[in-house]
Specification:
The chain has one domain. It is 52% helix and 17% strand. It has 7 helices and 6 strands.
């Protein structure tokens, strides 16, 4: 059976987000760019799984003389590194341009997360939805809270299983526990 397609494709201008989220700025200053990048990837992995989005975190080559590459992190998240001299903006814009002629555009949303207003307007021209870094951050925080709330409620319910049993079953389980 084929996997159900993601309800949206989210393209993230990753270094733009690292430079916009306060906690990532602090991480970058205190522990370096690699740590901030890994924290963003972790947040996006959780968010993408929760939202069931196909997410691409796109990082500029950042002065590395290496070819473009991509790495599958989870079923929902892949990290894309641009080639030397290519920006994340141009990489994302090309992906949006290709999506215009893709049949998936009729069944999936295409969202681009960046705080670069000019870039956001360009991708909107290709038919994508624009999302600011702050909007993405708020959605990630909201999704994280909802997951924690669900886990907390699940934990509470699982602790009350014994109380939901009939007195007769409770007595039999108590006897078994005592070895009788």
């Amino acid at each position: 059976m084929a996997a159900k397609p993601a309800q949206a494709i989210l393209l993230v201008d990753a270094y733009n987000i690292v430079g916009a989220w306060a906690e990532l700025i602090v991480l970058k200053e205190e522990k370096g760019l690699d740590t901030a990048r890994e924290a963003l990837i972790g947040s996006l992995a959780n968010y993408s799984a929760y939202m069931e989005y196909e997410t691409w975190a796109v990082f500029d080559a950042y002065e590395r003389r290496s070819p473009a590459s991509q790495e599958k992190i989870t079923a929902h998240l892949s990290v894309h590194y641009t080639g030397f001299g290519q920006t994340a903006d141009s990489y994302i814009e090309r992906a949006c341009s290709k999506f215009r002629n893709d049949a998936r555009k009729f069944t999936q949303r295409l969202i681009v997360a960046t705080s670069d207003n000019v870039h956001r307007q360009t991708v909107i021209g290709y038919g994508a939805e624009g999302m600011s870094a702050l909007q993405l951050q708020n959605e990630v925080i909201s999704a994280t809270r909802q997951v924690k709330r669900r886990q907390k409620n699940k934990k509470k319910r699982s602790g009350r299983v014994f109380a939901t049993l009939t007195p007769d079953v409770q007595a039999r389980l108590a006897q078994m526990r005592l070895g009788q």
